Amino acid sequence: MHKSIKNNNKKRGRFAPSPTGALHLGNARTFLLTWLSIKIQSGELILRIEDLDHPKVKPGTIKEAVDDLIWLGLTWNEGYGIEQKQLNPPYIQSQRTDIYAKHLSNLIEKKLVYPCTCSRKEIEATQSAPHAGESPKYPGTCKNKFQSWEEAYNALPDSRIPIWRFKSSNESISFVDGFMGEQSFNNSELFGDFAIARHQQGAGYMLAVVVDDALMNISEVVRGSDLLDSTPRQLEIYKALQLHPPEFIHVPLVVAPDGRRLAKRHGDTRISTLRKIGNSPEKIIGLLAYWCGWAEFGEEMPANELLKRFSWNTLNPENVILTNEIKKYLNIQD
Asked: Is 41 exposed, middle or buried (CB count within 10 Å of its CB: 0-12, 13-18, 19+)?
């Protein structure tokens, strides 16, 4: 079994775009913060493609995301597209399923996971209150129900396959977030036993991201605050696999005036579109810096300029709103 190696010399962060959609202003801001934090510490950045959500993967989005990052000046040291430095290949998750299978086998041997045949609709039917967009708490229906994945598979119609659930511990999982401070969650109370893989061989976001970050020696993960509650679940997996977790830094989101995450109905905020209609990378970086609290509205600058302005202590702690003024500034059409 692979084990992560704690690297005390260099900070290592990662870009991990998913080819289920284009890079937009929201995740571009998060990637900029990732880049600045690692660069200011003279660390290394890895580019990994998280493409396990197969039905939603869109052709051409990987190349588009790579082109957008380069255009913005957000470069990386290792990973996808860097042929001369391939320390932890491959860097596309769909090509790493054998690695995930080994770690899933470890969890199966420890009796920490089990196959589940419940659909989301069936789980929601057990809840006393609706869960708008959230993962409903799993009631444990399939715990101790099946002796093997094959038995669970045979209990389902042809169009469905079982998922793997991790047995949550009924204890507080506490950690210090690099931006949001002290955090504490009880996975059992909040989520029940949670899904970690949607494939017999262990390919699934929750398991894959833990394994990849550990094996690639990622020491710092910067991501949106909407993923904060993923952290206590991932910390349980790190502990179960005896892998070393990174520091987590969860940052505010870019949202629409209605408070929701950016969507097509709020206008086309894709970086590729903003490029095509004539915006410069300096204009986009300047806007992202303004949202962070490090620039005046209308300032334009390259990403390197922000290295002397960057500080987690002065980052705007509130979600950023895509206002009509900003849409007009970037010529974003509804």
From this structure: middle
How many structural domains is the chain composed of? 2
Sheet holding 44-47, edge to edge: 12-15, 44-47, 78-79
Q: Domain of 294?
A: 12-92+253-330
Taking the CA atoms of residue 184, residue 189, residue 193 and residue 198 in that order, the dihedral angle to the nearest 10 degrees is: -70
The token duo for 328 is 């007009």
C-alpha to C-alpha distances, 182 to 16, 189, 191, 228, 264, nearest whole angstrom: 25, 19, 20, 12, 35
Residue 222, in any domain of the structure? no
The model's pLDDT over 272-317, given as tens digits with 9 standing for 90+, comes to 999 999 999 999 999 999 999 999 999 999 999 999 999 999 999 9
- Is residue 134 assigned to a domain? yes
Within a domain: 247:
no
Rounded to two decimals, what is the model's pTM? 0.92
In a domain, 218, yes or no: no
Distance of CA 97 to the CA centre of its chain: 18
